[in-house]
Amino acid sequence: MTRYDQDWVDTLAGIGGAIGELTEPLRLLFVVTDTPDGKAAFFLDLDGDSVGGTAGRLPRGEKAQITVTAKEAALETLWSGERSYDAAFMSGDLKVEGAYERWLDILTPAFATSPWADAWSAATS
Length: 125
Hints:
Nonspecific Lipid-transfer Protein, Chain A, alpha+beta, 5 strands, 5 helices
């Protein structure tokens, strides 16, 4: 399994699980820069009952409600719990486009608690 490939995304989604606070489906795209292989991307399709994920960019013509862009090193500090999403955003190390309120109010708190904290932590190892 290589980071950001389909097996990695499937593992992440399987550990993280559904986010019950979501009342409607949400597509979240991560664009990771400065990886050893250049730029990488993956997206998560989230709702209150399930989560799915796909390695790579969105298919042509499809859009994400939220796009998160960051250098890999910045994401690793977030995923390991060493740094908060708010601190990374305020310093410019994390760029969030789209439905920022949903990111701030629903996803950031969910990603900081188990089981997502465990999923992100496993993703960095």
